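sry for the spam today, last one i promise. struct tokens for design, 190 residues
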């Protein structure tokens, strides 16, 4: 069961890479108008709130898994040269009783492998969010033939997998990356 769980999580993380395949096209477009004013966007259906400089675009996709179909909800803040993303998947009870640190590590390893990623030295660390386990790391990797810098935070909250992600061209930074990640909060599901 443990190896199939890791494979499932790796596929889920891979879906984040699939989502990123659209990023080169999004980032190639003209930058949208932004302001210095950030707003809090609340999504009680998915149990979170996050701050951002523009209204995120919502998309959803179904992904078949070994335990049924998983629905992914993605919230993409298009900033032109950079993108901010929150991705949520409800896995139900599949994570119950499992080693969550090992699941997070396996997911990270799968993501690195699928994108030919190279971890940025000193960027990996364990996190907690309202008592739930998480992992953060930064890496440079490939998606759809382009090279990007990815700054991930991944959390397991009950049966939900939450990811916050900042994507920039390699060699560039998004000055509010930490602000974006730190603004992610859990709120009651409705």
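last one done:
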């Amino acid at each position: 069961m443990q190896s199939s769980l890791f494979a499932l999580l790796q596929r889920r993380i891979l879906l984040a890479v699939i989502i990123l395949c659209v990023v080169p096209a999004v980032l190639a477009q003209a930058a949208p108008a932004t302001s210095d004013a950030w707003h809090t966007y609340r999504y009680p259906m998915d149990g979170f709130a996050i701050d951002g400089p523009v209204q995120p675009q919502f998309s959803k996709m179904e992904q078949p898994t070994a335990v049924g179909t998983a629905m992914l909800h993605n919230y993409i803040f298009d900033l032109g040269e950079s993108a901010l993303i929150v991705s949520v998947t409800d896995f139900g009870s599949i994570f119950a009783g499992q080693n969550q640190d090992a699941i997070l590590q396996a997911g990270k390893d799968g993501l690195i492998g699928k994108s030919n990623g190279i971890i940025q030295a000193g960027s990996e660390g364990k996190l907690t969010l309202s008592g739930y386990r998480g992992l953060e790391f930064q890496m440079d990797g490939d998606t759809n033939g382009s090279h990007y810098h990815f700054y991930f935070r991944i959390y397991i909250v009950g049966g939900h997998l939450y990811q916050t992600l900042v994507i920039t061209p390699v060699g560039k930074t998004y000055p509010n990356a930490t602000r974006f990640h730190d603004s992610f909060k859990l709120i009651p599901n409705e």
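Residues 2-186 form a domain with the Protein Transport Mog1p; Chain A fold (CATH 3.40.1000.10). ok im logging off now
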